């Protein structure tokens, strides 16, 4: 019976070494060895996948700002209020879902992810929400209300 426990203990410790269990960070840290959104992604010692993960988070943040300041439903041409309301609700759900994905990525506590999320939201706001690229100040009819922050 003790021989079986010895075999079980050896196989369990070998399994632990193969899975590379790492502690989850609870403070900000810098480096490419992290997990963002999915277990094992971008992986360890893989700079290319880490950069890809940063690019993905950046573009999701920009897209959230695009959705926050879009005006797809032309109020004068929409006669069906149910259809326009459903489209508005779908866009709202997409925007909130993607905003939560960015938040979960930031919860990896990786400094690079935090910075690209901020830069992505800021650049997206500058392009789609600020007055920098607006032709007139009368563009206030948005499909979705801007995301609010109770900061």
From TrEMBL:
Q: What is its main location?
A: membrane
**Record's bilayer topology term:** Multi-pass membrane protein
Q: Does the keyword Transmembrane apply?
A: yes
> What is any one of the record's Gene Ontology cellular component terms?
plasma membrane
Signal sequence range: none
* Compartment(s) of residence: Membrane
Which keywords does UniProt give here?
Copper, Copper transport, Ion transport, Membrane, Transmembrane, Transmembrane helix, Transport
Does this UniProt record's set of keywords contain Transmembrane? yes
Where do the TM regions start and end?
A: 47-68
Protein name (database record): Copper transport protein
Designated gene of the protein: LOC102591949
């Amino acid at each position: 019976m003790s021989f079986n426990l010895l075999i079980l203990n050896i196989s369990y410790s070998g399994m632990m070494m193969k899975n590379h269990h790492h502690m989850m960070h609870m403070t900000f840290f810098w480096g490419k060895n992290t997990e963002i959104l999915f277990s094992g992604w971008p992986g360890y010692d893989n700079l290319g996948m880490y950069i890809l993960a940063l690019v993905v988070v950046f573009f999701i943040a920009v897209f959230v700002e695009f959705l926050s300041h879009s005006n797809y439903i032309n109020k004068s041409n929409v006669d069906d209020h149910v259809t326009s309301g459903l489209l508005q609700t779908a866009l709202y759900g997409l925007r909130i879902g993607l905003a939560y994905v960015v938040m979960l990525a930031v919860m990896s506590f990786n400094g690079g992810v935090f910075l690209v999320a901020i830069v992505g939201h800021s650049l997206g706001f500058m392009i789609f929400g600020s007055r920098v690229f607006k032709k007139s100040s009368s563009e206030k009819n948005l499909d979705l209300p801007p995301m609010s922050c109770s900061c």
